User: Fold this.
Amino acid sequence: MAHEHLTYDDLLRIVELIKSTEHFSEFRLKVGEIELELRHRKSGAPPPVPPPVKGRVEPAVPKPVEHAAVPRAALATWPESSVVVRSPMIGTFYRASAPSARPFVAVGQAVKPDDIVGIIEVMKLMNSIPADVHGTVAQILVDDAATVEAGQPLIVIQPDAESERQYE
Amino acid sequence: MLKVNGNMNNSSDNRFDFIDVTLRDAHQCLWSTRMTTAMMTPILGAIDRAGYAYINILGGAVFDVCVRYLQENPWDRIGLLCDHLQTQCDALTRAQSLYTFELFPDDIVALNSHVLARRGIQVLTVYDALNDNRNIESSLRSGHEAGMKVNAMMTYTLSPVHTDAYYVQRTRELVTLTADFISIKDPTGLLTPERGRTLFPAVVQAAGCIPVQLHSHCQSALAPEVYEIAMKSGFRFGYTATEPLANGASLPATEDILARARRLGLATSMNDEALAEVASYFHWVSERESKPRGEIATYSADLYEHQIPGGMISNLRSQLDTMKLGHRLPEILEEVARVRHDLGYPILVSPFAQYIVTQATINVVQGERYKTIPDEIRKYARGYYGRLAAQPSAEFLERANIDPSEYVTEAPAAHLEPAIPRLRAELGSAATDEAILLAAFYDRRLIEPLRNPAAECRFRTTPLTELVGFLSNRSDIEYARVRFAGTDMTIAA
Assistant:
């Protein structure tokens, strides 16, 4: 470090020294042209909150998914004859194609097998969930935009009796 | 202003020139695209002096991260960088998808070209993830109209259908489309010297007088060798990054490729002193920001099976951890290779990398293949995004159950209505072209924060300034005295 200009290499080495001596209360360094003297705050004294540094943004760390809340689904019951549409994956359940759009289905609505009853967003991709059965929506167990587990019941459908369907 | 003089043909003068990716792909691969404008500005002078032919400053992820995570107005970043760099700046888009995964109509693509040119971009680089060149036509046309040169990229992958003849055919299409440059883009670093020896001369020959560029990543650690084969085959340009942000998932180091070019006796125009300054600055910024530096990868044969780009593997790992599926990564990687085959070899590049990985994850978790198929993958299989390289497997088609009437054969953007009249009506006549484009790409909620005043940028810094900044940002130091070359400075809490 004995030269006229402080270089980035010097800086990296100085910072490395400072970081590796954090547990000492004093730090003094003299190499060539540079002299550095530091005093660490005594442990116990609360450090002042550093001012926010403009122009530096911390990367968005993905928050761990909270364990999916399943209050209604956990308590809900349905007749054995019902068909339960379950989430294929851990993801986010949407009842409509866009925040402003009408929900795909509502309780009491008749559905056909290809009708979309909801969307599960998995890793940013949209998975349309079909009813897979002729019937009537009996219960919707999960709120819009809720996190769901793989296999979690989403919607309960009361299937049509065989005889009603053949006249469609 | 023109840094590259005279004849730019592949064979001309035995030259090899460099395109910098430090401000774009390097941090996209190593720092999840989180380099802010304020981290760039102090070193622009040195980057400018380094002798690059072009500086790539924009790509889909950079634009998106500016908006979503950094809350920086991407147009302002582009303008600021172009204003402060004498070297010509290059902007990359995903052609008809621009910066996102959706398809946009031709009027949006054209407006984007004009907005980029007005902000000072001189080279528009475009690629289509399916190598369906119908998807780059409107970028080429509007890029030329806006006065930019257009660099058309072909994306490399390893599959039974992506043969040398396939790439020669794509090159011929690009010659017909009058691209100014043709690039081979290898997002996962799959190219080997052996393949380069047959593929590169064939592409150079088919490109005729259009200069050819190489853009390859270092995940297999073979890229520097591959660049050498490219130079020997008559490639005119290579994309590289400053040494601390090169290698690993990133591109090769400029310093490394430059040494190889010199050894081959090729003329270059790089300035070693400026390159060293850029490198030492980014070594320091990596330390200051606690960001990783690029490390030379070790060769792994698995890479050639799953073909997932490096930046994406780390992303996938953290996504799986969030879903408590981290332990199933090896299974998912194996399934990725099979899904890729089943889907007709889409290339593991945005957005299809995401699609394939998600389908593989769903297949593994459900324990039944293609029980659930994301809507985007159905669209892909219908040809909505463009021509497939090969027919999907019977197993997939049977599960997807696509009606023959749903297949799209026309050019992907042909079915899209112009969007500008609607957006102008919504935003009012006072809305700028830049505002129109942001509204086409993003929800209002994401655009709103971009109005906040930009962070202050410094255009020079010194190691001493950085040292003082470092000390004053540390809450555990209550007193610091720095004496250096006549300066004596004390800071105390």
Summary: The mean pLDDT of chain B is 93. The two ends of chain B are 49 Å apart (CA to CA).
